[in-house]
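Sample pair:
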Amino acid sequence: MAQQDGVAVSAGAAPGGSRGVLHRLVTLEPGEARAAMTAALFFFFLLSGYFVLRPIREDISAALGPAMLPWLYGGTLTGTLLINPALGALVARLPIRRYLAVVYHSFAASLVVCFVVWRVLGGVDGPQARWLGPAYFVWVSVFNLVITSVFWAFMADTFRVDQGKRLFGFIGAGGTIGAITGASITAVLVKPLGSTGLLLISAALFECAVFCMWRMPGTFRNAVSATGEREDAEAKVGGTALAGVSHILRSPYLLAISAWMFLMTLTNGILYAQQVEIVGAAFTDRAARTVFLARLDFAVQTLTLVLQLLVTGRVIRRVGVGVALAVIPLFTMLGFSALALSPVLTTFVIFHVARRGGLNGLSGPAREVLYTVVSREDKYKSKSVIDTFVYRGGDQVTAWVYAGLRWLGLGLVPIAWLAAPLGVVWLGVAMWLGRRHGVMTTSARATPLPTAVATA
């Protein structure tokens, strides 16, 4: 073996080749390259499949109008509430990879069914649009969260804590490139194929993701159960369908992750509502506004990709999960304060791009690392509840809170001042989670492996 940039690489690897490029982007140890690349490709196909569908969902939302949003959010929240017990029951009874295959095959099949229904009934522009549109919005909003939650649960179950710190940013970059690709596919093909035809393309991309999942190498973890026995990473998780909820309520660590997620969605919602006001006032022409928002999203995706490829793994590994989780809450506090002092478009753009890029590129991978130290049951059940129901619950609460504040006569500036302290609370939660994750990591390393494992 030779050393390159402090990383072991095989003597036959060409430093200028693709392997050399990969090692420059991410710190890899022997045996990790295939797993990291396959996981990134897996995530690429998942998010490209979703982002083919996302513009259709956003168009439906715009056509239905803002008055329908609370109902759409309510329907999505109800959908996440109904699907979690089903997912919990499924993962309790199936080996993990078969569980993932069933989840993704089911969503792909649902898109084929949607394709047939739309062709028969005329699609979202047909006579049945008043219920087809909302149904599509709710379904896509629910399964968007499920597919990413299940993916990251599988990653947390496959990689060790130290690997998650180094590799999750790179794996996330695969998803970011997939998101850009999916949106580009829709932009190019929506006119010749129509929205209905894009459903089949999305379904095919999800099937490609399943293909990658089956080719993921085996787990790197030597998991040990509470009884001291080695856990089979490919075995059924077991337990009950509702264990995810009960485990969250009994665990301060999982409750803190839930609080982190809730505060993220709450501040997201407030900033989104302020985006509507600021951008709406700055652009009276609808086409100009659309172009501006597209450029804004491109800037976010670009920053996200740069962070994931060049910054995230190094930051998490060197300064820890807690700091990576705390950066955006701190910036949120400062950003809302700046917006309150100067509620203009330039302030909003800087705040929005830096915050969303940092959330997706830095805090997102750090949040997924938190799950590398919990039980397998919590990875697949509690995580699903947090990533879906808590997330969408935060959306719903934000809609009610913001509407209430506006009803009380508060404008953009006072609401921004009220939002700034949320960053302080969020910061405290992030730092506590970082410390607790460190303690749990140390405890896991100190747990002796059974003799059969230690001598393997």
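The first strand starts at residue 2 and ends at 4.
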